Amino acid sequence: MKKIKLIAILIAILLTSSFLYLAYKIYSPIFTVDSCENEIVKDIPSPNGEYTAYIFKRNCGATTDVSYQLSVLKTDQELENKSGNAFITDSNFKIQWENSDHLTVNFPEKAETYEQDKKVSNVYITYKKSKE
């Protein structure tokens, strides 16, 4: 009799655990809140209008520092609440389109950089440190 009770308890625990795990997997994306916010500093379209370069500040709350980021997107795409896809640094910076597929980023030489991609989609990116 004790064996049957023990098996019943183990089955109940297993079923309850499985149910809770599945409920978590199904419903957690609905209730997860992204605590980060992007604030666009500047958006500059490429000369041919195919791309837009977004400089934005990303703030993820009190436990992290604000960062300055760059995303290069097709003009019909919106800047989502995600990290930049090209450049991430701790300091503000400037950008300039050299032509429709080449962007130059000027950033302070003392800046700490976390991401520095040389190409995003079909846009080449050159980085220059300046003594600001």
From TrEMBL:
Lineage of the species this protein comes from: Bacteria, Bacillati, Bacillota, Bacilli, Bacillales
Biological source species: Metabacillus fastidiosus
Pfam families: DUF5412
InterPro entries reported for this sequence: DUF5412 (IPR035406)
Protein name: DUF5412 family protein
Domain of life: Bacteria
